[in-house]
TrEMBL record, chain A:
The keyword Repressor does not apply. One of its GO terms (biological process) is protein complex oligomerization. Residues 2-74 form the J domain. The gene is hscB. Co-chaperone involved in the maturation of iron-sulfur cluster-containing proteins. Seems to help targeting proteins to be folded toward HscA. One of its GO terms (molecular function) is protein-folding chaperone binding. This is Co-chaperone protein HscB homolog.
Automatic annotation (TrEMBL), chain B:
It comes from Aliidiomarina haloalkalitolerans. This is Iron-sulfur cluster assembly scaffold protein IscU. GO terms for molecular function: iron ion binding; iron-sulfur cluster binding. One of its GO terms (cellular component) is cytoplasm. The lineage of its organism: Bacteria, Pseudomonadati, Pseudomonadota, Gammaproteobacteria, Alteromonadales. GO terms for biological process: iron-sulfur cluster assembly. InterPro entries: ISCU (IPR011339), NIF_FeS_clus_asmbl_NifU_N (IPR002871).
Length: 169, 126
């Protein structure tokens, strides 16, 4: 399934997310199950499947990381269910350090500092990813996507820490 | 999801947590990560002059299964030669810890950590 085609958008890492949202709403209306309430079972089922596709497609194209992953999948490189490990000692050492720093966070200010740092790392990696995707350097792009997954995981972790800090304050 | 008793045991009482000096020539360091879950594993082996693994330490950020897998291999590799350690398969780890299919990648991570450490040692002594 090519989600760019679904929304009739050009395959582009820098797609216009406002335009994506507009087309998403239009398609949603067009295939809303309520409109097929009096249709046949088959029509209802098709509308339901289409709605699920539209939702999946929107979620996938909305954020740069999953959008890039989808673009690589369209190029024949499937990363979604891979079990391979990343062996980039320098990057992983940095991950360890960031994890250690996360463990020591105990104030809202420290959460903010870490958030700024993570956002900046994510931005750098995303900029690199854009260039690699445009250059059709698929293997490097795949590794950058893997790295971004680690960074997003760290940000999820940071959000959890923030929540638990708020609870205890 | 329910963890097996062995996973819980290793998770609650992890063996050999810690670090060696990675610049020491007798120390091999393997760093691996699993993008799907963000787990990061560092395995270090202390290798004697006879090529036998004398000691092992690990540090892992990840789920219970990842911690248990790394804790288990630090016990398994001690007393082994590098070739013997390299032959440890993720399926052995998964079987010993009774890992469910969704946690198999944790055992793959542990197997790859051993391989990465051995590569590091060979590079150091090339």
């Amino acid at each position: 399934m090519n989600y760019f085609e679904l929304f009739d958008l050009a395959v582009d890492f820098d797609l216009d997310t406002g335009e994506l949202a507009r087309r998403y709403r239009l398609l949603q209306q067009q295939f809303h199950p309520d409109r097929f309430a009096s249709g046949s079972e088959r029509e209802k089922l098709t509308a339901l499947q289409k709605t699920a596709q539209i939702n999946d497609g929107f979620q996938t194209l909305k954020t740069p990381l999953s959008r890039a992953e989808h673009m690589l999948a369209l190029r024949g490189i499937e990363l979604a269910h891979e079990q391979r490990t990343l062996r980039d000692p320098q990057f992983l050492m940095k991950q360890m350090e960031l994890r250690e720093a996360l463990e020591e966070i105990d104030t809202p200010e420290a959460v903010l500092d870490m958030d700024v740092q993570l956002q900046s790392e994510i931005k750098q990696l995303t900029d690199a990813l854009r260039a690699e995707i445009i250059a059709i350097d698929n293997d490097t792009a795949a590794d950058t996507i893997r790295k971004l997954k680690f960074m997003h995981k760290l940000r999820d972790e940071l959000e959890r820490i923030e929540d638990s800090l708020m609870d205890s304050w | 999801m329910a963890y097996s008793e062995k996973v819980i045991d290793h998770y609650e009482n992890p063996r050999n947590v810690g670090a060696f000096d990675k610049n020491d020539p007798s120390i091999a360091t393997g760093m691996v990560g699993a993008p799907a879950c963000g787990d990061v594993m560092k395995l270090q082996l202390k290798i004697g002059e006879n090529g036998i693994i004398e000691d092992a330490k690990f540090k892992t950020y990840g789920c219970g299964s990842a911690i248990a897998s790394s804790s288990l291999i630090t016990e398994w590799v001690k007393g082994k030669t590098l070739d013997e350690a390299a032959s440890i398969k993720n399926t052995d780890i998964a079987q010993e810890l009774a890992l469910p299919p969704v946690k198999i990648h944790c055992s793959i991570l542990a197997e790859d950590a051993i391989k990465a450490a051995i590569e590091d040692y060979k590079k150091k002594h090339a």
